[in-house]
Structure to design on (105 residues):
């Protein structure tokens, strides 16, 4: 029980520090910053899978399973958003249509 309390305190402190640091970053850089947190989700998945490597009780197994599911949603969503952002900077291969000349009417 003491271990759970210590981990909860560490989580709250990390959340507060993270919130304060993110609030100092300009809003223009939030999306690229969030795309780079995919590595953190991968570490969460590895940690949760390591919990399953040995016999655990129900609470640890349920929390580990929940961590895997949440981290997978975050990981896949992060890669989808990053892919869309990269596609914004690709040049179009099809030539654009010339604008219609409405001055000749």
């Amino acid at each position: 029980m003491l271990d759970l309390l210590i981990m909860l305190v560490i989580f709250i402190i990390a959340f507060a520090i993270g919130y304060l640091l993110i609030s100092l970053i300009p809003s223009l850089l939030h999306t690229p910053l969030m795309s780079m947190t995919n590595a953190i989700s991968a570490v969460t998945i590895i940690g949760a899978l390591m919990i399953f490597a040995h016999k655990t009780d129900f609470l640890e197994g349920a929390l580990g399973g929940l961590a895997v599911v949440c981290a997978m949603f975050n990981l896949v969503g992060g890669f989808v958003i990053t892919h869309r952002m990269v596609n914004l900077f690709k040049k179009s291969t099809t030539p654009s249509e010339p604008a219609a000349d409405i001055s000749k009417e």
In short: The chain has a mean pLDDT of 79. Residues 34-89 form one domain. The two ends are 81 Å apart (CA to CA).
